[in-house]
Amino acid sequence: MTLDHKNPVLRVVPGPSDINANGHIFGGWILSQMDIAAGIIASRRAGGSVATIAIDKMEFIQPIHLRDLISVYAEVERVGRTSMAIRIEVIATRDRGATHLKVTEGLFTFVALDEQHRPRPVDPA
Hints:
The chain has one helix spanning about 25-45; strands at about 10, 50-60, 70-80, 85-95, 100-110. By secondary structure, the protein is an alpha+beta fold. Strands 1-3-4-5-2 form a five-stranded antiparallel β-sheet, with helices on one face. Strand 4 (about 85-95) and strand 5 (about 100-110) form a beta hairpin.
């Protein structure tokens, strides 16, 4: 599935502290950016608090470089009784905007939470 790349949930540029031993951006950094973006979409859809409960699929496709502009796109793929699956794609823009590459993608699952931080139903509409 290819997401609509018109409205990223997040746009960020990694910094020097985000580099791993190979000179690329640390995978944990991009994972956290993906979780933040997916959490925003899940919270909007659930109309309240949510928590990440699973990363069903995560694939690193291309390395992320220090000066890349990272755009994180996310959308609700499916809704269950208390959970939602959020599809995420990350596009790196480099070479002063001349190159756009899908660098990673994933499917994150969130559960809607009530005031006591227990699962609650998500409106199916």
